Amino acid sequence: MNDASKKSLSESVAAKGAPISEAAAGAILTVDLGAVRENYRRLKARLGGVNCAGVVKADGYGLGGAQVAAALAAEGCAIFFVAHLAEGMLLRQALGSRPAIYVLNGINPGGEGEAFEAQLGAVINSAGQLAAWRAAALRAGHKLKAAIQVDSGMSRLGMAAAEVEAVTADPQGFDGIDVTFVMSHLARADEPEHPANEQQRLEFERLREMLPKAPASLANSSGIFLGQPFHYDLARPGAALYGINPTPAEPNPMLPVVRLQSKVIQTRMLEAGAGVGYGHIFRTAAPLAAATISLGYGDGWHRRASAAAFFDGVRLPFLGRVSMDSIVLDISALPPDRLKAGDLVELIGPSQTVDQVAGQAGTIGYEILTSLGHRFHRRYVSG
Ligand SMILES: *Cc1c(COP(=O)(O)O)cnc(C)c1O
After folding, report:
1. Is any atom of ligand 1 closer than 6 Å to the C-beta of 221?
2. 95, 223: one domain
3. What is the pLDDT of residues 277-294, one digit of tens each?
4. CATH number, domain at 105?
5. How confident is the model at residue 17 (pLDDT cuts 50, 70, 90)?
6. Residue 352's domain spans which residues?
């Protein structure tokens, strides 16, 4: 990637929010939209001719919903999923009227008017949501789009068998509703050998037979890797687009998307016996070179996540607790005076993947990404 293309991309998206300049920020988050696009192409290749949506809930898994969705749209993605009505309204502004946008959690009671004004499709999870959407269609005077979600075994969202039976028994149950597809979600798709996947698939088939005939959608990122029987008519990947490994037992088939770097604020030589950070949970045994960086739990870096930063590929372990705005690093592995104030150390990137950071924090890559805060200088590049 060249510097000119970097600049024009970041400037074109900066107009949307209140951008934080590189000089004003403590840390820099780089999002490679070219990698997002390549990941979309890789998933499409796995899917053969099956349509592929983009899941951009939680602000595009923390990476910038508008930017990520625009990159996917440029790749031909025409169906997007968000979780909340508010996310859908923002995305509609960002993408214009063309793409289909569905709200996974369904429309909150009272939100139907805003939803149809923004031309959002509802994901209907219950008989109550169905009735409210039907009433909204009646008020609108035209059919409204909806995906019907059935609960095939996750017990989280969607209509289970008894509710599907009840709504289909009502001859007017789907009046005014354009059922664009029937969908369900897998609980254990990242465990390819687990029998729960096939059980859910069979239950999905049974429930969709009972509903108005429509295309079907079951697979999230990991579901795509369960093979063709799980693909149906539309896949709904999120995580894999952002570089999270959809096949945790195997090497990551996706490209990394995120790089997080933080600035060194100061360096110091600690004396033997010095306590470091809140609670002095670390104490030096001998003199030790340390650096303090400008990143902490206020940036979404979990306080429990003891980890390391990297500089020139050299691992620099955290010392003591993560503070709100800073972390102290052991830099004794570097030559003296190699690291200076203003230098950037890497927290996520080539030396340390999102999935590795998550493993050290006892969580998943999804939570690492969606935790990333709003204090960073954000760079959108296409490399
Ligand atoms: C979040 C979500 C997805 C995307 O899941 P990934 O594991 O991120 O690919 C798909 N479908 C539903 C219903 C979801 O809630």
Report:
1. yes
2. yes
3. 999 999 999 999 999 999
4. 3.20.20.10
5. low
6. 258-363
Residues 236 and 319 in one domain: no
Residue 57 a catalytic site member: yes
Q: Can you give the CATH number for the domain in which 332 is found?
A: 2.40.37.10
Q: Which of 40, 59, 61, 81 to mutate to test the pocket of ligand 1 (most atoms within 8 A of CB)?
A: 81
Helix (H, G, I), strand (E, B), or coil: what is residue 291? strand
- 233 shares a domain with 266: no
Domain check: are 228 and 357 in the same one? no
CB atoms within 10 A of CB 93: 10
Quick check: CB of 239 below 6 Å from ligand 1?
yes
Q: Is 115 in the same domain as 229?
A: yes
**What is the distance between the alpha carbons of residues 341 and 253, in angstroms, rounded to a whole number?**
37
pLDDT in tens, 91-103: 999 999 999 999 9
Does any domain span residue 2? no
> Of all atoms in ligand 1, which is nearest to the CA of residue 220?
9
**What does the H/E/C string look like for 116-172?**
HHCCCEEEECCHHHHHHHHHHHHHHCCCEEEEEEECCCCCCCCECHHHHHHHHHCCC
Distance (Å) of CA 279 to CA 282, 316, 322: 8, 21, 11
Catalytic (active site) residue 297: no
Amino acid found at 181: F
The larger pLDDT score, comparing residue 147 to residue 12, is at 147
